[in-house]
Description:
The complex is a heterodimer.
Chain A lengths: L4 H15 L8 H19 L9 H16 L4 H5 L2 H21 L12
Helix pairs in contact in A: 1-5, 2-3, 2-5
Chain B lengths: L18 E3 L27 H10 L6 E5 L2 H4 L15 H4 L2 E2 L4 H6 L2 H14 L5 E6 L1 H6 L3 H11 L4 E5 L9 H15 L13 E7 L5 H11 L3 E7 L4 H4 L7 E4 L2 H15 L3 E3 L5 H15 L2 H26 L3 E5 L4 H5 L2 H6 L2 E7 L4 H10 L5 E4 L3 H11 L3 E4 L1 H9 L4 E3 L10 H16 L2 H6 L17 H6 L4 H4 L35
Parallel strand pairs in B: 2-3, 2-4, 4-5, 6-7, 6-8, 8-9, 10-11, 10-13, 11-12, 13-14
Antiparallel strand pairs in B: 1-12
Helix pairs in contact in B: 1-8, 5-7, 8-11, 12-13, 13-19
EC number (chain B): 1.18.6.1
Protein name (chain B): Nitrogenase protein alpha chain
GO molecular function, one term (chain B): metal ion binding
Amino acid sequence: MEMTIESGKDTLMSYIMKNCLWQFNSRGWDRQTQNENIIGKATQILCKETTVRKTLADRCYWAEAQQLVNDWECFPWLKKMNTSDIKTMMCKLKETLDYQLITNSLNEELKNPNY
Amino acid sequence: MPYHEFECSQCIPERIKHAVDKTKNDLTEALPLGYLNTIPGTLSERGCAYCGAKHVIGTPMKDVIHLSHGPIGCTYDTWQTKRYISDNDNFQIKYTFASDMKEKNIVFGAEKVLKNNILEAFKAFPKIKRMTIYQTCASALIGDDIGAIANEIMEEMPDVDIFVCNSPGFAGPSQSGGHHKINLAWVNDKVGQVEPKITSDYVINYVGEYNIQGDQQVMQDYFKRMGIQILSTFTGNGSYDDLRAMHRAHLNVLECARSAEYICDELRKRYGIPRMDIDGFGFKPLSSSLRKIGLFFGIEDRANAIIEEETKRWKPELDWYAARLKGKKICLWPGGSKLWHWAHVIHEEMGLEVVSVYTKFGHQGDMEKGISRCEAGALAIDDPNELESLEAMYKLKPDLIVTGKRPGEVAKKIRVPYINAHAYHNGPYKGFEGWVRFARDIYNAVYSPIHKLSLVDISKDKIVTDKSFVTRQMLSDSQLDESILNSKELHEYTGEFDSLKRLRGRKYPQYPMKGKLAAI
Lengths: 115, 520
Ligand code: SF4
């Protein structure tokens, strides 16, 4: 099946929503950080760029991202995609995650200032 | 996704926003409300905030006297009705303690009574030097200063340590309020007081795990095989002093985010320990979880070796049940986190169709996870009352509900089999073998011949006399394909009655310490 950037993004989004937990931290700002770091690191891994793993937090984001990319081995179309398309797709993926789970979320606890 | 209106709740219009029919993957259209005060007129089946603090989180700690400061009734649910076992002969479920407040104490105060109770309890169990005390509605309302009494005792008896949890029943809409309070109280009052002995380069806290029928011991086995030191478990099979040393871990591995994300978030903020949410249930989610912990520490090869060995051993048994459970309808109605731990994997690995998910005390975040993970067509309900549960069961006609014992008994009355999601039937359910045990329990429930017999109404139905007794397998195998029936590979569960037996006394590999986290 021919994968476009849009359909590829939808497939990866469905995968994350069904299988992952990191995107559901309970505060909006926390979700923002998780999405940014994990999707950011997954993009770097997919594009074979170096990832920073200096702190424990970095290492945790990286482990989540690396596991995600390993799981995505089941999508052969991803291997054929060029770097520029991967970057565009992952950028849209992050926007969709932010939209679903932060900016347009109906979860009323996201804005609670305390944990 | 439309909100779902129950006919029985038309007279309680506020309820409409508590249920949603999942039609597609879009959480921005509708999301059930959650973690709100129970609406007057609806009979909720939730627990109180004291229950959430003590019975869920505090009491699984194993080397502690757990004392309720209040009337004896609050304590009722503690004595051997929970199944959070431990490896120290189950001290915490064998004995239960309460100050037994009476009317006269409400009038004259109960601080003296409490002090005497504490002394008496320590005297009765001289080897136990740790205690937790829980406030209840009665002691909170009269304003007894439990903290002051605890400090007095600690001054008089320097070898004891006492933790006070001020989470009376009314301190939140449900048990979830108590989870929050005890998480924060523990991190504020106790974490950082003990310096642990570090024996590995890879050190974790295992958080939000309550050792139901041995779940913690199963996961501990995998971690030890990977050479990971579990500094503390919050709180199943956990030790009081180990939990005071939580600040020295490299990673918090979090299972039940509903009850214990607060302490992980605080430890992340105060001590820089990252939080990694995992699933301990189901072959694929558990494998991914072990792998990402392995990745974090740079020891993924050790995780892979365990996954390979365990999958080879247990997958054929899981598949035997999956072939027989395919297409059966299930209502996934646990308390909080299991609705999302199980919603996808029970479908993918056992072939069950999840027709409904609900939560008693979950927040909207739990519903986001549950709705994302279940298939379209499922009915998602927040804190249903008994009539709503009945209406849902009559409409959805599930083959099984997985829930707690109170709603479970209601289901039985209308002849729907149930599995205990909180305390389990024949757990542990975590781990590879545990997942097969869960499948076996589901199979036994769905195909139990008793449900055929109990559906017969002897006042009007025709009683069949020419057929004799049927077995589960006669019922389950009647429609099965020959290739499955004759498979030499697939077979029923062959583990032992006590699956923890082989873990006790097991020798673990010793990995020499390199002195720091290899990857940093
Ligand atoms: S609501 Fe209050 S009185 Fe009732 S069990 Fe809870 S703490 Fe005790």
